[in-house]
């Protein structure tokens, strides 16, 4: 399909996870493609480097979403690497994916992009080496972890005289932090990792964790019941379960399960029950940190939670609750900023909410962004796969985008929907979506949304498997007769270690009894008690401490705080 005036149908910038998915999708649609990668290796952020100037995973990083919602739809991860693979396993998986689908010949390494511009209907891409390449379409897959966000250093912490560093440069615990007073700022999974691995090295009880905007938490792997084998908790996501407890309605009938499996308490509001970390967002209407094991360190007294900041003077930080604390080092886990220095000025300034499905510019759909949308809970790769599939089908002419006027209406409707959906959050992550619903929208456009009725007519048993298995990308292969059996095999494998379908009855019963509404009310009462002057006056009293320990004793006996990543063996982080 290459036109005379171009070198390739599609040029993709970035050979990380999203770039590889985009490359494979373009090749499936018989498009000629070139992937430009700045580094000398593929993998993006998953390709570990000791260089603090290169943003990558830390040396102990595991996936925080299970393989069920991370692996490619037609290329399952090896069973032996477990539900939450280490980054070394991820790199082996990505290399195997490249080999399986012959992607490597389409990647040009050490080819950072300096400039892109569109002239006469053609994208002209200039590399840092000075090469100029032409394509009809351009796909950006540079990822969300490129330019560290230092906004707090420029505002609340501008007068801090101690050391301020960003988590993007960290690869492992820093020996210079040993014995220091350290403040970690931010509520994401980078912050949880630092809390988990730094707490033993800093000065005792001098590791503080500040989440200025509050945060919701999930625990990603635990025993639902003391006698059961632990499971990946994001596998409670089958079509049947989502019908009984819709995600966009706050998972009614299941929210209490999320509280119990995360915090070991039915009144652990927002998964933690910690007043300093509470915000006004409703359940499932805010980004959720799936690395909740770090919360155990707060309960144990190893880490001190802190809330909103007011400002600072010298090396003292002042908080909105009237307290002040002195620190030697502040670690900013405040995420990253959008950074596209190679794009035309007008294009790079455009907000993602102004793009069709957060992907295509409304006035120029020859440019697509893949891998920038983040789900409330779940993984970026599974979303990137279906974004890549949509882009490839549109570029090949297999699928037609709506006309310009309709596109603009859809863009406006989506922006209004998510503005309302996330109205109680900060919206710092401006590409945050409810993941499964978003993918369903993409799959509807591409024609890949599962036709359950047709499947039922062919095989009621297979249809039941599709409806009761955990959510997985292979669901969107069921319409393809050639790949249906492969998809069903994958769904059966992931269904094997999940709870019985009897949970549906429990969910419906809990909805009928208004369990979640009752627990929400009790959680609000708990929060008001925790923040009252009377409680602050007596909470450290010896008798109150004794009663609190007695209250927590059943939790410590029954609640699984030890399982992490894999069972029965704890995965190595070395």
Detailed description of the structure:
By secondary structure, the chain is of the alpha/beta class. The protein is 33% helix and 16% strand. The strands form seven sheets. Strands 1, 2, 3, 4, 5, 6, 21, 22 and 23 form a nine-stranded mixed sheet that branches. Strands 8-19-9-10-15 form a five-stranded parallel sheet. A hairpin with an 8-residue loop joins strand 12 and strand 13 (231-232). Helix 1 packs parallel to helix 9, helix 9 (380-396) runs parallel beside helix 11 and helix 13 (460-468) crosses helix 14. The longest helix is centred in the last third of the chain and has 18 residues, at 404-421. 44% of the residues are buried. Residues 566-574 have low confidence and may be disordered.
Structural class: alpha/beta
* DSSP summary: helix tally: 18
Q: What overall form do the CA principal axes indicate?
A: globular
Give the end-to-end Cα distance, rounded to a whole number of Å.
47 Å
Strand content: 15-25%
Mean pLDDT: 89
Uncertain runs with pLDDT below 50, 5 residues or more? 566-574
Q: What Rg, in angstroms, do the CA atoms define?
A: 24 Å
Q: Please give the largest β-sheet.
A: 9 strands, mixed
- Total strand segments: 25
Helix content: 25-40%
């Amino acid at each position: 399909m290459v036109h005379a005036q171009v070198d390739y149908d599609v040029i993709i910038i970035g050979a990380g996870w999203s770039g590889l998915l985009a490359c494979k999708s373009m090749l499936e649609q018989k498009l000629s493609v070139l992937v430009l990668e700045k580094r000398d290796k593929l993998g993006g952020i998953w390709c570990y480097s000791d260089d603090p100037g290169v943003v990558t995973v830390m040396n102990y990083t595991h996936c925080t979403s299970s393989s069920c919602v991370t692996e490619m739809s037609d290329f399952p991860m090896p069973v032996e690497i477990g539900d939450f693979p280490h980054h070394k396993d991820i790199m082996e998986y990505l290399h195997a994916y490249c080999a399986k689908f012959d992607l490597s010949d389409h990647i040009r390494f050490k080819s950072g992009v300096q400039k892109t511009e569109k002239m006469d209907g053609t994208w002209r891409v200039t590399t840092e080496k000075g090469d100029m390449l032409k394509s009809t379409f351009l796909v950006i897959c540079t990822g969300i972890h490129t330019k560290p966000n230092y906004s707090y250093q420029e505002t609340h912490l501008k007068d801090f005289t101690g050391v301020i560093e960003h988590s993007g440069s960290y690869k492992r615990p820093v020996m210079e932090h040993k014995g220091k007073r350290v403040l970690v700022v931010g509520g994401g999974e980078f912050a949880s990792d630092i809390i988990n691995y730094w707490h033993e090295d800093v000065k005792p009880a001098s590791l503080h964790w500040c989440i200025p905007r509050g945060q919701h938490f999930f625990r990603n792997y635990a025993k639902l019941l003391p006698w059961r084998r632990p499971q990946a908790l994001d596998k409670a996501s089958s079509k049947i379960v989502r019908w009984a407890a819709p995600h966009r309605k706050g998972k009614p009938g299941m929210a209490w399960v999320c509280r119990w499996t995360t915090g070991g308490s039915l009144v652990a509001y927002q998964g933690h029950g910690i007043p300093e970390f509470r915000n006004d967002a409703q359940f499932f209407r805010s980004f959720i940190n799936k690395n909740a094991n770090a919360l155990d360190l707060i309960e144990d007294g190893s880490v001190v939670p802190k809330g909103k900041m007011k400002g600072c003077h010298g090396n003292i930080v002042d908080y909105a609750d009237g307290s002040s604390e002195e620190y030697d080092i502040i670690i900013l886990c405040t995420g990253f900023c959008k950074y596209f220095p190679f794009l035309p000025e007008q294009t790079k300034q455009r907000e993602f909410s102004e793009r069709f499905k957060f992907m295509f510019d409304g006035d120029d759909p020859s440019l697509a962004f893949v891998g920038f949308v983040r789900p409330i809970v779940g993984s970026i790769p599974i979303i990137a796969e279906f974004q890549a599939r949509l882009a490839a089908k549109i570029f090949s002419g297999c699928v037609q985008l709506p006309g310009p006027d309709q596109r603009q209406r859809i863009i406006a409707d989506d922006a209004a929907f998510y503005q309302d959906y996330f109205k109680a959050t900060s919206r710092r992550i401006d590409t945050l979506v409810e993941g499964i619903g978003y993918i369903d929208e993409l799959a509807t456009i591409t024609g890949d949304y599962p036709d359950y009725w047709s499947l039922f007519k062919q095989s009621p048993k297979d249809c039941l498997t599709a409806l009761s298995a955990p959510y997985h990308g292979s669901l969107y292969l069921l319409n393809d007769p050639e790949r249906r059996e492969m998809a069903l095999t994958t769904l059966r494998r992931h269904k094997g270690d999940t709870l019985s379908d009897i949970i549906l009855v429990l969910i419906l019963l809990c909805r009928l009894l208004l369990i979640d509404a009752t627990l929400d009310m009790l959680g609000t009462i708990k929060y008001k008690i925790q923040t009252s002057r009377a409680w602050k006056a007596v909470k450290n009293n010896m008798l109150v401490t004794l009663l609190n320990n007695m209250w927590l004793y059943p939790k410590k006996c029954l609640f699984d705080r030890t399982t992490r990543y894999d069972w029965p063996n704890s995965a190595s982080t070395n």
